[in-house]
Design brief:
By secondary structure, this protein is an alpha/beta fold. It has 2 domains: 126 residues, 3-Layer(aba) Sandwich (Rossmann fold); 77 residues, 3-Layer(aba) Sandwich (Rossmann fold), CATH 3.40.50. It is 51% helix and 12% strand. The protein contains 11 helices and 5 strands; from the N terminus they run βαβαβαβαβααααααα. A 5-stranded parallel β-sheet has the order 2-1-3-4-5, with helices on both faces. The radius of gyration is 17 Å and the shape is globular.
Length: 229
């Protein structure tokens, strides 16, 4: 199955470089190039994209707003947004995750890592650099973000104890395999619990689960990973 990619960046040379890398693999196809967020949304829809590589700073409509609109459009529910950034400690990256992005990459990413990232996001795993992303969420919240904990926490009441336990571990950056080893279950069992939690909480992917876990207060900035059972 071909993974269809839209490139959204206002710098032509950057788009050309990414296109060269992506088109070098037969399983990928760049199906559109956008220089702003408005074009990115239109191309994602028209080209039936699987993944949009989205720059944050673009004219007319920036990547944050474009990501937000893609996430809010039911017709684009299968589209994953992978944010491109020059500085991975940029607070805008966290805003992009809150807007619905599935993860982020630095623009200096190695070709092999770029291709791997697209595969992961297209497969629904998301959150490509979980520990770095977790740190960004922690820092952003600690700088004054209001988590509206009461309202968000009430949405967690529908989760089973196991789903809440796994949500905490996901928020701490553990992969399905890591969680499976820790809880002495299979990775498929973990994936099932994660998918059920996403359905109950009405979120698109693991990145949104992490943001929700912090916003609810279920996991707090700087909190250590729970002790191994």
């Amino acid at each position: 199955m071909t993974i269809r990619v839209v490139l959204a960046d206002d710098q032509t040379l950057i788009r050309a470089g990414f296109k060269l890398i992506i088109d070098s693999e037969p399983e990928f196809e760049v199906v559109g190039e956008a220089s702003d967020g408005t074009e990115a949304i239109a191309l994602a829809r028209a080209a039936r994209a699987d993944v949009v590589l989205m720059d944050i700073r673009m004219p007319r409509m920036d990547g944050l707003e474009a990501t937000r609109r893609i996430g809010a459009d039911d017709n684009l529910a299968g589209v994953r947004v992978l944010v491109l950034t020059t500085f991975e400690n940029d607070d805008n990256v966290v805003l992009a995750l809150q807007a619905g992005a599935s993860g982020f990459l630095g623009k200096s990413v190695a070709p092999a890592d770029l291709l791997h990232a697209i595969r992961v996001v297209a497969g629904g795993e998301a959150l490509l650099s979980p520990r770095a992303t977790r740190g960004l969420v922690s820092r952003f919240l600690s700088q004054g973000e209001s988590p509206a904990a009461g309202a968000v926490l009430s949405g967690l009441t529908g989760l089973t104890d196991r789903e809440r336990e796994i949500l905490v571990l996901v928020a701490h950056g553990l992969s399905n395999d890591d969680i499976a080893e820790r809880l002495f279950v299979s990775p498929l069992t973990v994936k099932t619990h994660v998918n059920r939690a996403m359905t109950k909480l009405n979120v698109r992917d693991r990145a949104q689960l992490v943001v929700l876990a912090y916003r609810s207060g279920l996991v707090r900035p700087g909190e250590q990973l729970p002790a191994h059972p």
